[in-house]
Amino acid sequence: MSSFLVTGGAGFIGSALVRELLQRGERVRVVDNFLTGHRRNLTDVSARIELFEADIRDLEQLRPAFVGVDYVLHHAAIASVPRSIEDPISTDRTNVQGTLNVLLAARDAGVKRVVYAASSSAYGNAPSLPQTETMPANPISPYAVSKFAGELYAKVFVEVYGLETVRVRYFNVFGPRQDPSSPYSGVLSLFIAALLRGTPPTIYGSGEQSRDFTFVDNAVEATLLACTAPGAAGKVCNVATGERYTINQTIALLRRIIGSDVNPVYAAPRPGDILHSQADITLARQLLGYDPKVSFEDGLARTVDWYRTSEKLLSSAPR
Length: 319
Ligand code: UD1
Description:
alpha/beta; UDP-galactose 4-epimerase, domain 1; binds uridine-diphosphate-N-acetylglucosamine
């Protein structure tokens, strides 16, 4: 049995990691300040985890949570492009300074490895698809800058302090427990909530922008592999499905799965929005032994099923 600390463990991806780790019989700690995470994401497992209600912006508050930990999965972040455009300073404080604090606390506690939840937004509008890890970063929003800055810190901590870190670059992770309650929420949570309620989803721009949507179980698998994969320390690795769907295609699929005839409305494109993303996942396969098990369409169906049984969550979604 190893000891894992999940920062942002009350969030969408963090709480999925917590559940899988418990399933595997590991010891689990969570750090969360409940700014965007929710207690309800951990209700069913609360007796089996150690919860540290702490803010990653405060290093001294963090330190006790790291004592005796083997692996840190750093997922605490403010995860929205438009929110970072409205308020770049708070995004920076959490995503950049917070990450630096997590790395310092991990270094000082003698943690074996930190896996950093990096973002495909680092690529910006890449010159060609699929995106490979050797392409230069080209962030086009404050959010993307902040997540990439966190990557750079993670890389430098390997070289300067000998702390093992691995950067997993997630591509649009979706699935059960993604919170649809804010206009800043992930697109699929907003679309599913709207269609299930019978209200029109909003598409920003033409809807021809595309994403490599990744079901959360796939992201969890890759992230846990990254904890122990030999040779992964110091590396950055795409975590995705390797396919892309346009926003318009996604709406069509969801309308079919849900059995909805509600039409979307179109609005102006969002500033800082990248046009296309699609990952080359060769490195994740080679380095981590990762193989995405859940296809986009199966993941969508499983996600819709989950939201159908989560009435309260749906009613909290913006109209
Ligand atoms: C997402 C994640 C980000 C992550 C990145 C790469 C969220 C909120 N953002 O960014 O944390 O680092 O993937 O993994 O989970 N859209 C609509 N209608 C809506 C909402 C969005 O058309 O109601 C469009 C957006 O304009 C965009 C696309 O859907 O083109 C995806 O948007 P969003 O879900 O916010 O994610 P990303 O910005 O791609």
